[in-house]
Amino acid sequence: MLHQSVEKSSRKVDSTHQTDLDGYWTVAENHLTALGLVSVDCWTELGGISMRVLVVEDDRSLGAFLKTGMELEGHRVEWVEDGEAALAHAAANHPELVLLDLCLPKMDGMEVLAEMRARHDDASVLVLTGRSDPHVQVQCLDMGADDCLLKPFSFHELTARCRALRRRREQFADSVLRHGDLELRRIEHTVARAGRTIELTAKEFALLEFLMLHRGECVSRGQLLTETWQMPAESCTNVVDVYINYLRRKLAGGKAHDAQAELIETVRGMGYRLGGLNRNPVARPTGQSCPVHRPAYA
Predict the structure, then answer these.
(1) pTM for the complete prediction?
(2) Which pLDDT band holds residue 164 (cuts at 50, 70, 90)?
(3) Domain range list for the chain
């Protein structure tokens, strides 16, 4: 298999130059096309599950390799090179998975992890570290990391661990989303407001689900295009605005238009926000603030 070719070559580099990570990733980068060919089969078998991934790595060869490799796996990937940029990106874009190096400029990876968990950020975090001391890995897991992987590593193993984190995330995700008197049941694919059933098309349901997952937050038209329609964020279309109006009418139940009572608010020049309850973001009930269960071990 082509993955085995990458791993065999990388083991040879590792055995002769234990600390030569540049050589390791150079070998891996030479096989990116091969990795992509293997990933196509794997991607098909998994049913096309995609995640928003943030790579936090200051080593440019490794960072570029991870970004390209994860994109070949079908994920949407952003890459930053320091801890402060990682926190800013996580707060603005809400990645589902963070591949986090520990030795970072401006802010150490452990500080980034601690700050993310203090903010109740629900992203899965896979720590990538060259520190072989097991106490470091234990500390990361106790601080809220979902998994740790020691460098140098097999890309095949990395992607397998990412898939495992995705399955764990889906297993413990909220099946029912609520916002005031609005209730969306993800398994049954039903929506109700104040006990009144609301019939939605598949695309309307997906749009409302994304807004409810980010309730209280402003989401841009570009985000909605990417997440709901799988279209480039810069696409020249008004489909988002059209469907927002469809949703508003259905959520209002045919009542007269009242901008002050609308659940879906327009944030001028920015996008939309699910609000409308005393004009403030809604706090999620205790025990439901994070849609992901976090075990203490990988």
Answers:
(1) 0.52
(2) confident
(3) 2-171, 176-274
Closest to 245 in 3D by CA, of 270, 223, 268, 262: 262
Query: What does the alpha-carbon distance between residue 214 and residue 178 come to, in Å, rounded to a whole number?
Result: 11
Q: Whole-angstrom Cα distance, residue 85 to residue 149? A: 22
CB under 8 A, 24+ apart: contacts of 20-23: 21/59, 21/62, 21/130, 21/151, 21/152, 22/61
Strands 190-193 and 196-198: antiparallel
Is pLDDT at 59 greater than 70 in this prediction? yes
Question: In the predicted model, what is the mean pLDDT of residues 194-210?
Answer: 92
| Residue 48 CB neighbours (<10 A) | 8
pLDDT of 16 strictly over 90: no
What CATH number was assigned to the domain covering residues 176-274? 1.10.10.10
Helix (H) or strand (E) holding 225: helix 221-228
What angle do helix axes 32-45 and 2-16 make, rounded to 10 degrees?
Answer: 130
Q: Is 31 helix (H, G, I), strand (E, B) or coil?
A: coil
Instruction: Give the relative orientation of helices 202-213 and 239-252 as an angle to the nearest 10 degrees.
Output: 90
* Vertex 168 angle, CA 141 and 227, to 5°: 110
Q: Do domains 2-171 and 176-274 have the same CATH topology?
A: no
Q: Is the pLDDT of residue 56 over 80?
A: yes
pLDDT at 118: 86
The position carrying tokens 């980034």 is 112
Higher pLDDT, 174 or 194: 194
DSSP 231: -
Dist. CA 125–CA 162, nearest whole Å: 10
Class of domain 2-171: alpha beta
Residues 55/79, Cβ–Cβ less than 8 Å:
yes
